[in-house]
């Protein structure tokens, strides 16, 4: 008996000591200087696409681990072992033995000495839109095949001997122009030169009508590499249509997108189409692919920089009318929240917003939970059970992932709200600055326990429904008739829940009445933007045309006596 127990103890010791350790380093040829950043190690069952492209919220996701490095020397190994936090498996010890492909990335951080006295290390955007996979200058390794052996203790060396190339700047065309300015406000805040950019779609006849002054529409959204959805050439007749989009259950979607872009060009240049400017803003920053277009303790005064530096420069260069009655804003998802936020925070600077599938506009419906009353973001908790909160679904309600899983993926990608992803950017924008200079956590990223003090800070500054309700006496007269919201009732991220609450308020508020519009798409998923006559996969491509009639009606109904209503109607 005693030998059996001894044998069992030995076996247990061997299992406890058995683990695969990874040592990730970069050669001196890639950098002679020490580097700061986040080392990410990805393990996948296939190398096509590369493992770094396989990390996602889907059940098919690759495995990923991450570790911060400060002053990592050339040739020095960053160690990833059984103590390193991972997603979806928590530890390397939990990875099932077998054959895999492994790849590593070093997401570089830069040191910022901000005007608030804090020094922080963050990944500055380098033209890619905050994507750790493709950020220029990031080091990475080629995928290599490995075998994780059961019961073995082994170390795998991974060399970051590759580097992501620079991304070329987009070039001007006949209709699409590009502008980039250094922001005085943001440069002062971040302690280094900071820039804002925009892609501007100019109207047909712009050069032939130098006397014309134009209304302007800001199409908010994620980082645009160039102006989206506009093409002067039709798709080739023989364009490949074998591609399949699971979300829409449709083949040949790339050709549909290309055809819609060409159709937009034809409408834009047609005789009766209204002449105006459409702008897509570039405001990627050290935390995300855009700033949410508001002032923030952690990101700086992006709202004021866009409104009082970038927008006037665009209107100056491209002959915008430059008055609030001739400015409109629209967008979907992040852009939907930004469109409504711009209207709320700068109520007299815009004459209307069209917010589609907006990020949570009421935090007591923060996707699937109440940020003010619930104790945990990841679980609904009772005296005898905990139920995971869903994070994403399809139009049938089938759950793709949980809130916890998405947040754990973000935590692997970056500590201190540095993942460059969704929950972290909400935290970076809305939270106060912590003692360490990084955003205060709204909840514990591992456990989901909510910090009520941080939630109160969020409510008073960024909960759009709360702000409208609180300030309606003074704010209401400035936004009546200007708010338009659209959302699918099966939004993949449950964003319709907050829209319901906003809808109830806008319908009931008095003195003045809101005179607003809120519409829902039956069984429509994310990016539904208000057109019930078209399937979502079509309407989501028509943001730049579908609100034009409403914009024109708003201009006709609400403009100053001396407004220029003619020079741009040629």
TrEMBL record:
Keywords: Signal. Residues 1-18 form the signal peptide. InterPro entries: AB_hydrolase_fold, Mycobacterial_A85_antigen. SUPFAM superfamilies: alpha/beta-Hydrolases. It comes from Spirosoma terrae. This is Esterase.
